[in-house]
Structure to design on (590 residues):
């Protein structure tokens, strides 16, 4: 079972023989030393991605420098050439070759149809691609041992990998075949043909993650090609790696509702000795459900690559579990500590329900997972987080591994969660609420898939965990009107959460109004009242907040302590008699 794995990302090394090779050698030796010091010895990255511009002008003799550099970088990491995956960049094209053919192609290739037709004619395509002959000759030799499949036009490849039993795929795209000069931006092409054909090679490998690699950002492509890339390539990948702009950063994008992709932009490995050269180390933290990107930037005064950024984004595996929801319940039931709550545990793992047990104000309540951050009960928080780790971990196995074997591998996490709830069940009120949820989930799991069926709900939770507030707001808005009542309510709760966290007065006011609407509708829960009352108080809408607290006190008398501090402060401001009565404050006394 894979809990995490890593890879190294370098880009834009621009190797050439006609410049000051001393400066080039100094920086790249320092890069190799940095990588060796931090990740060498065989416990580091599982493979290496190189997102273009290996050479400076696509000349064959430049690749005589590229090969020993890549070998020197890979050797201390215990990686062979089968585990190094490059793509070409604009500096890998010989701009002095096929100039007439290039000029004609740029003039003619103005629509998806014309690009498809051009790439489908081998003679035409081959003539233009001679501009990449230096890179192609390098790749043909360097990558010869890889179990990759390349599209007929040679512009994309799929390389399947096995990470301790978990299948993944590297999907490489060549975005440099229409590079020509300083006017490249908005004039480059990838083409539908290589993308569609490459995507057709992926399903048979049943990958849990697809890692895309291309040199250019999508906004450097022609408008029609940019749209195609963002509608086809982005949704097909979980992580996309690129270079070209020499500035490292990461961005979470969502082009399909409920599905995200992290774009990792690499800096330049070498753009000059005094440039802020950099490389990135990327870790798929499977259990945690995050992608971690560490960036190291060169300091020419010390000749060292120093850590600059350490960023995490949500990450969710692809694939499905064998069997049905009932099958998952049956396997969870074999774990003694979870037998009495097997339906609830299975529903949490599957994403069928989202409310989790949380200790707030000394009492166990059920609420959104994001509220865990407000709890001081470390053991309880660890138990709840452990059950969410199970969802990703169950998907790491190949499809031939049975559901029983998978559950056995994660049984300790399920056991700890069951033990934690067992201890809390000494509280009769909490035990009764847990029993009601177990009964409800029994009905839900008889018809549910064993796999997290609602990628949208899972994605919303991931965004909230990662504090991606603007993306969470955008995605939540798309689903507040969902035909699924549960998803619509969940989206509305997350929309409120995202609006309240962005520090924008207008959005905070909207969050208050939405929270007030939720508690006025059927299906709201105690924590909806708590959230609404707190938000309204923060906006100094004391009368509205006070009215909610009075209503809350009538519905959830035993839980009044959850809003008592806010209620007391409101009473001090308003001296509202109804609120005072709810708090047990006699007239004339504080």
């Amino acid at each position: 079972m894979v809990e995490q794995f890593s890879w190294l990302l370098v880009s834009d090394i621009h190797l050439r023989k006609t410049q000051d090779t001393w400066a080039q050698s100094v920086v790249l030796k320092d890069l190799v030393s940095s990588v060796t010091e931090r990740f060498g010895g065989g416990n580091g990255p599982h493979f290496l991605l190189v997102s273009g511009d290996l050479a400076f002008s696509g000349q064959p003799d430049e690749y005589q420098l590229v090969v020993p550099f890549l070998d020197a970088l890979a050797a201390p990491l215990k990686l062979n050439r089968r585990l190094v995956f490059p793509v070409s960049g604009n500096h890998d094209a010989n701009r002095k070759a096929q100039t007439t053919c290039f000029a004609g192609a740029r003039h003619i290739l103005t629509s998806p149809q014309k690009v498809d037709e051009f790439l489908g004619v081998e003679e035409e395509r081959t003539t233009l691609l001679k501009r990449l002959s230096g890179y192609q000759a390098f790749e043909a030799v360097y990558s010869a041992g890889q179990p990759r499949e390349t599209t007929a036009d040679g512009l994309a490849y799929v390389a399947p990998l096995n990470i301790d039993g978990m299948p993944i795929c590297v999907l490489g795209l060549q975005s440099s075949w229409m590079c020509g000069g300083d006017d490249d931006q908005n004039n480059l092409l990838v083409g539908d043909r290589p993308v569609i054909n490459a995507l057709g090679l992926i399903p048979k490998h049943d990958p849990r993650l697809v890692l895309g690699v291309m040199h250019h950002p999508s906004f450097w492509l022609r408008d029609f090609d940019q749209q195609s890339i963002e509608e086809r390539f982005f949704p097909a990948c979980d992580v996309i790696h690129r270079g070209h702009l020499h500035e490292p950063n990461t961005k979470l994008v969502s082009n399909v509702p409920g599905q995200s992709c992290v774009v990792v932009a690499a800096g330049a490995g070498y753009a000059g000795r005094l440039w802020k050269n950099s490389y990135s180390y990327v870790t798929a933290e499977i259990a945690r459900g995050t992608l971690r990107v560490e960036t190291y930037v060169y300091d020419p005064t010390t000749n060292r690559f120093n850590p600059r950024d350490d960023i995490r984004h949500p990450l969710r595996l692809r694939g499905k579990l064998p069997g049905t929801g009932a099958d998952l319940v049956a396997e969870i039931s074999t774990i003694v500590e979870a037998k009495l709550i097997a339906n609830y545990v299975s529903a949490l793992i599957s994403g069928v329900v989202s409310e989790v047990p949380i200790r707030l104000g000394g009492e166990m309540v059920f609420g959104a997972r994001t509220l865990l951050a407000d709890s001081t009960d470390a053991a309880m928080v660890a138990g709840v987080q452990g059950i969410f780790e199970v969802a990703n971990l169950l998907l790491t196995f190949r499809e031939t591994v049975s559901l029983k074997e998978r559950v056995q591998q994660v049984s300790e996490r399920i056991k700890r969660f069951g033990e934690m709830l067992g201890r809390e069940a000494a509280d009769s009120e909490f035990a009764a609420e847990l029993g009601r949820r177990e009964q409800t989930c029994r009905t839900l799991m008889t018809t549910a898939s064993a796999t997290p069926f609602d990628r949208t709900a899972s994605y919303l939770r991931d965004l909230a965990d990662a504090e991606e507030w603007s993306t969470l707001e955008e995605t939540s808005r798309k689903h507040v009107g969902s035909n699924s009542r549960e998803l619509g309510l969940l989206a509305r709760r997350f929309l409120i959460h995202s609006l309240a966290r962005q520090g924008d007065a207008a959005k905070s006011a909207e969050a208050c109004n939405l929270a007030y609407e939720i508690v006025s509708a059927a299906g709201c829960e105690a924590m909806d009242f708590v959230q609404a009352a707190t938000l309204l108080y923060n906006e100094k809408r004391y009368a509205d907040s006070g009215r909610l607290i009075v209503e809350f006190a009538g519905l959830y008398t035993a839980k009044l302590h959850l809003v008592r501090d806010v209620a007391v402060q409101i009473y001090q401001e308003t001296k509202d008699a109804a609120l005072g009565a709810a708090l047990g404050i006699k007239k004339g006394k504080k």
Q: What stands out?
A: The mean pLDDT is 89. The longest helix spans residues 21-39. The longest strand covers residues 304-314.
